[in-house]
Amino acid sequence: MSTQMATFRLADHTYGIGVEHVQGVLRELSRTRVPQASEAVAGLVNLRGQVLAAIDLRTQFGLPPRPEGQEPMVVVVRVPGEAIALLVDSVGSVVDVDDAMFETSPETLSGRRRELLVGAYKLPDRLLLALNLDRVVEV
């Protein structure tokens, strides 16, 4: 059996989300900061009249900030009850991955990063890290 994953990059890693959760991909949207919100909440965005929380995945994964002048791309995902904007470095393509290529996260990966991933797909040229979307949007 195979799964379709929408891919994107953060720093030097490729991540994926099941395409059934992706509502759209956009260039940078202006954000309004939310006072005293979690550090991972980059603000609120107005997407065609709908206000969405924007979560910076670099912050969620404990990565350094984007280089000066590099604007994030926005992946709009649908989770039960709402849409959320995920800020990523760049957007890739949709790939078909064979479920036999999947492995859960190793036990040695601990803490918050382990919670944010369900595992990885072993692609011929790299690993595709599969996000645990439910955990990623918890801020």
List the helices and strands and how they pair.
Elements: E1 2-10, E2 13-18, E3 22-26, E4 41-47, E5 50-56, H1 57-60, E6 73-79, E7 82-88, E8 90-98, E9 102-104, H2 111-116, E10 117-122, E11 127-131, H3 133-136
Parallel strand pairs: 2-11, 5-7
Antiparallel strand pairs: 1-2, 1-8, 3-6, 4-5, 6-7, 9-10, 10-11
Number of strands: 11
Percent of sequence in beta strands: over 45%
Helix content: 10-25%
Shape: globular
Mean pLDDT: 90
Which homologous superfamily in CATH is the superfamily? CheA-289, Domain 4
The number of distinct helices, counting runs of at least 4 residues, comes to 3
- What are the low-pLDDT stretches, counting only 5+ consecutive residues below 50? none
Alpha carbon gyration radius: 15 Å
CATH class: Mainly Beta
Number of domains: 1
Q: What's the oligomerization state?
A: single chain
Strand count, sense and barrel status of the largest sheet are:
6 strands, mixed
Distance between the termini: 33 Å
Order of helices and strands: EEEEEHEEEEHEEH
Strand order within the widest sheet? Answer: 8-1-2-11-10-9
Which fold does the CATH topology refer to?
Answer: OB fold (Dihydrolipoamide Acetyltransferase, E2P)
* CATH architectural designation: Beta Barrel
Structural class: mainly beta
Please characterize this protein's 3D structure.
The chain is mostly beta strands and 139 residues long. It has one domain: Beta Barrel (OB fold (Dihydrolipoamide Acetyltransferase, E2P)), CATH 2.40.50. It is 10% helix and 51% strand. It is built from three helices and eleven strands, in the order E-E-E-E-E-H-E-E-E-E-H-E-E-H. It has helices at 57-60, 111-116, 133-136; strands at 2-10, 13-18, 22-26, 41-47, 50-56, 73-79, 82-88, 90-98, 102-104, 117-122, 127-131. It has a six-stranded mixed sheet. The protein has a five-stranded mixed sheet with strand order 3-6-7-5-4. The longest helix is centred in the last third of the chain and has 6 residues, at 111-116. The protein starts with a strand and ends with a helix. The model has no long low-confidence stretch (mean pLDDT 90).
